[in-house]
Structures are given as C-alpha cells and as structure tokens.
Amino acid sequence: MVEENKDKNKEKELNFEALKKELQEFQKQKDEYLAGWQRSRADFLNYKKEEIERIEEILKYGGEEFILKILPILDNFDLVEKKLPEDLKNNDSIKGLLQIKTQILDFLRIQGVEEIKTIGEKFDPNFHEAAEQVELKDKDSGIIVEEVQKGYKINGRLLKPAKVKVVK
Amino acid sequence: MSKILGIDLGTTFSAMAVIEGGEPKIIENKEGGRITPSIVAITKSGERLVGVLAKRQQITNHQNTIFSIKRLMGRRYSAPEVQRDKKTLPYEIRESKDGGVEVKMGERFYNPSEISAMVLQKLKQDAEEKLGEKIDEAIITCPAYFDDSQRKATKVAGEIAGFKVRRIINEPTAAALAYGLTKKKDHQIVVYDLGGGTFDISVLNIGKDTKEDTIEVKATGGNTHLGGDDFDQRIMNWIVDNFKKDQGIDLSKDSLALQRIKEAAEKAKMELSSVLEAEINLPFISADSSGPKHLLYKLTRAQLENMVSDYIEESIRLVKETFKEANLKPEDIEEIVLVGGQTRMPKIQEEIKKVFNKELYKEINPDEVVAIGAAVEAGILQGEMKEVLLLDATPLSLGIETLGGVNTILITKNTTYPCGKTQIFSTAADNQSSVEIHVLQGERPMAIDNKSLGRFMLDGIPPSPRGIPQIEVTFDIDANGILNVTAKDKATAKSQSIRIEGSTGITKEEVERMKKEAEMHSAEDKKKQELIEAKNTADNLVYTTEKTLKESGDKVSAEIKKEIGEKVEALKKVKDGDNIEDIKQKSAELSQTIQKIGAELYKASQEKKPGEGEEKKPGEGEEPKAEEGEYKEK
Known about the structure:
The structure holds 2 protein chains of 2 kinds. Chain A is α+β, with helices and mostly antiparallel strands. Helices cover 60% and strands 17% of the residues of chain A.
C-alpha cells in the first residue's frame, strides 16, 4: 500500500513539474508576444509621425520630378540659341521666340532652380558629367572648356548634372 | 539590436534594403538614388569615387574607372570568360600570383574583391547615415551559378568593407523570398532575370521541409552577355541607319550625338512598355553645309518587338533548355518570378506566359526585388520576420449584396490581415423582419458578377419603417485568412454569423482573371451602377412622397395632391424600366413638385395662429388700461 502511495506521489510530483515548466514556457511566450505587440504599436505610431514628415518632404521636392521633365525641352531651346547662324541672330522673330526661353528660366528661378557654373570651372563629378575629353595645350587638365548641356541645382541640391567637355 | 543590411551586389547596379517596421524597405544612397552604379574610379588627383560620381567622370578617365567587376570576381585569369572580357574592358587586367585576376586602378593593382568592397563600403556609409545607426552585418546576394571561389570572393569583399557577412544567398532565392514564395512547401519556381547586361534563368525547388537557406537550385542557365543594353543598342542602330538614309549623315562617328541618341533610345524603350508609340525627338543633332539637321522619329511597340525578337527568342530558348536539364516540364513549374528592369517589356512577359501558361510574379520593382529579398532573409535571421508575423493581404475585395443587386465593398483588395471592418446597414421595405447577408468576393459593382462566398439570414427585426433598423455588419479576417461575417441588430442585440474559409486562398490566376474582367467591364458596370442608383433614388422618392402625403392629410390642397399624384404615377411607370434618362427626369419633376407640399404646410401653419408673428397692433393683446380716476379693486 505504501509503495503504491509513493508511486502515486511521484507521479503527481512529475506532473506538477511538467505543468510548472509548461507554465514557464507560456509565460515566456506571452511576454515575448506582448513585447512584440507593443513594439509593433509603437512602430505604427512612429510611422504615422514620420508619414507627416514624408508628406512635407514630398510637397517640398514634389515639383522636382516635374521640373526634371521640363529641362530637356529647355535644353532644345539652348541648342537653337547655340546653333543659330549669324545672319539670324538679329532677326526679331527669332529674338521673340528666344524670349520664351527666358520666360521658362524665370519660372524655374522662382522654383529655386539655378544653373550650374561650367566653363572655366574645374570638373567636379558632384555637379558635372564628362561628355568628351579634349586635347588643349594651353589649358590646365581637368578644366571645363565647353558646355554640351546645361545642368541645374534646386535649392542648393543637384537637380541634373551639366554635360561638359573637359581638358585632358 | 542593430539592423542587418540586405545587399544586391549587381554587375551594373547595386541596391540595399533593411527591415523597417516589419517590412523590407529600399534605402536610398547619399545622392538620393535607390540603385547605385557598381562603378569605382580613382581620379588624377588620387581621389576615390564610387557610384554615380564615378560614372560621371568615366569618359575622362576610362583606364581608371572600373565597372562590371562582378564578371571577374573569383575567376581564374585563364578562364575563357575573363579572356573574352579582357578584349573589351578599357582598364588593365593581369594574372595574380595565385592564378586569379587583378585589375589596375590608379597606381596599383587590386583584387576584384577589393573593388567590390569599395562599392559595399559606400553602401554601408550611406545606409548608416540614412538610418542614423551603425550597421555591422550584411546579407549579400550572388548569382546561383557562382562557384565556391566566386562566393568566397563575394564574402571577402563584404568583410573588407567592414561587414560581418551573415549569409551569401542566391539572387533567385532572394527574389522568391521577396514574394513570400518560400512559405509554401514542395513546389518549383523559375526565376527569369533579365537585367542591363546579363540574363540568368534559375529553377528552384522548395522541398517539403526546407528552411529558407536550404532551398535547392535545380538548374541554372542564361547568357552573361545579354541584357537591356543590347536592346538599347538595336534601337540606336535603327536610329543611326534611318538618319543615314534620310540625311546622308553617319551619326555613329559623332560621340556627342551618340550619347544623346543612347539616352533617347533608352527613354523610348521604357516608354514603349506602357504606351504603343514613342517619339524620338532630337533637334540640332547634327549639321552640314546646308544648315542644322534635326531628328524626329516615331517608334511603335510593334517595331521595337521586331527589332529585338531574336534576343527574346534566345532568352526563351535558354529557359526551355534550363528546365529540360532539370528534367522538368513547364507544367511542373508553379511560380515564375521576374527580376531585372528589362522584364518590364510586355512582349517578354507575354512570351514567358506562353511557355508556362501561368501568371507572373512581377509586382515588386524588378530592379529592387533581389535587395528586398536579401532584407527579408536578414529579417528572418533576426527573428523580425517570424513565420507568425509574415502577413498576407486579401487578393480581392470583400463585400455584401445591397438594394438593387449592388456589391457594397467592406474590405478593399490588398488589405493586410488580420483586420476588421464594420458598417451599418438597414432594411429596404417597411416592416421587413429579416435581412439576408450575401457575402461577395470581387471588384465588380453588380453582385451577380462576383464570386458568392456564402449567405445567411438575420431575423427577428422588430417591425419598423424601412431605413430605420440599424443592422451592424462586421467583416473580420483572422491571421489565418479565415473570414467571419457577423450581422447584429442593434435594437435586439440579436446576431448571426458565418465563417468562410479559403476566401484568401485563391490562385493568382483567378485573381488576375477577375481583375481583368472588372477592367474590361468597367464602362458597362458603371452604367449599370448608375441605373441602380437612379432606381433607388426614385424608389425612395416615391416612398417619402406617399408617406408625406398621407401624413399631411387635409393640410395640402386637393389640386396639389392631384398634381403630385400624377408625377408619382409617371415616375412609377418608368422606374422599373431601363431608361436611366427617363427615371432621372421624372424623379427631378416629382422632386420639384413635392416642394409644393412643404410650401403648403408652412402656409397652413401660419393661417392657424393669427397675430403670431404679425406686428403688434396697439391696444390688442395689451392689459386693460387703468382708466383715470377709476380705482380698480381686485
């Protein structure tokens, strides 16, 4: 009889230990899940705050994408001016057409866009893109001698690099 | 716990991503770009440039600007690929002491891993700046066909850059991870990767018990010199040839003109992925004795597809060859994933679909998907992407059928679950004692055009005029994608619900089919919807008119009652028909006429109480004046 009781007690003890262990594991899991849930909630709230900042950023630089698309059109006006034969340079109709270019430039200026300095400056990959190398004995290496396509900054940041010819 | 950076170290471009808020997110580099050219250079003044800065000065510094270094990583100098590339690369390559490759940049020779490390270092710095924290660990991807030596070279590159490289994972595996395809077990995936300069095709097997990092690569194939750049070249050739024919000028000799043409060609190619015709407009492209010459051509999508058909066919041939090698047939492949910008081309997607007859996984930006996948792996390693936290989204919208057979959506498609949405509905007829909740899945506005998921009734609604009872309908999807729909009558607190499984386990093919149908029928669906709305408005109008007339009784004159009665009859006649114009017109007429009831009622209320509101007449309504001399006693 005593042996039976002893066995029964041992069984109870083992069961109890097993349950205790299980309980501890569940406790650990619960803590993990709760922490994860709280973190997730915090991430969400932080995301909402950041979203407002992001929207402000977008509004600020939103026009940029659009302006980038207009620039190639402006480039073509530059080409007209550049390749204009001498005899047409004083033509009033041409002058009128080119005045439209100034109009576009003025619009861009108000958006905070400015042209990047090129000719005479040292080549700087932060603002310039090399389109061609030229051999010129009387100029220093790395100096820009010709502007192939204008580059622009917007509010101080690079918008589009200028394409230039650099002395070898 | 610091973040692990997921990096796609590509031949022409690299990208990086981390897990933020449980989601993989591409990190922009310092210049604001989501991808970084894999280019390194040393300038004449000894300055080291990496990325887009290196690219910008490439023309002035060919010999010291190193690009496509991935082609040389971990390879032996004597390898045929190296010898082939050596012929075209403008920088110097030589054999290293151990038979590998060395490249010359500036004053000395570098191991290709050192060059790649410079790219990785820039990514590390930019990421740390953007995230505001140190990043010490990375997961870097490499092609599935890379051998041990090449993988080691990639790992070494990461270590030189200052990373502890947790894993080197295969690019196709990363792509599969990005789409969550590794969650499902026991299936094959094909990854079609057509980038700027390389084409890789891989067959992956996700076995029954595989963990993400033991996914089997069953076969690989491809062409290391086929990519989007070749497509651009074809367009450029077409432009130059046409110009030669039209103007007699050979633009291929003019490097500046060629640069403009290259840009325009790439732009046109990209545009033709979404429109059928693109314009190539280059004024002042050249000049001769007669003056300036301009270039203006239109390129159609069909023309482009013709121009590059052999490239596309070659890629499909390689696809078929690759899975034949794996002893598989197209039917054995369950998913196809697209990687690389060139896969945006509709014709390519069409041809791939023809081979496998399945929908393609292409929603994630194909230029970024590998980096995203690397970040997912990072997340899994860190436990941020516990299986339990990998959440899905509903593929199609869920709603109920409402008055007129309309599909009223409660949960829109692509909503992440678990989630819940509640909306209040009401009855359509007076004394309606029960409502039927018919649960629908799909995008089309008419209930009948969508998939019916189930229906149930809620009864015991106390008798009330239509529109008065408040029936709260709740849609709730749990983490396992099981939908529970509950309808509760707020008055009686009585509720009924239905449990629907499998509403989220719909195949990709079905989803695409339903979405396409919705698009195709959107015009006629809109008309149907407008008709239903007009009918509902008409019904409401008739109901409220008749109710108001009844309640107002004698207050409204007989003539007005007759006039309104006629308008109601006219509307009743048309509202059950299909002529929306008639319904709208008769409704408007009735609407106008009803206003007369209001006017009458207000007039009647004025006549009932004389004096009120009128100016006070002296003596009227005032207290009797005390007459002089009289002494009034109570």
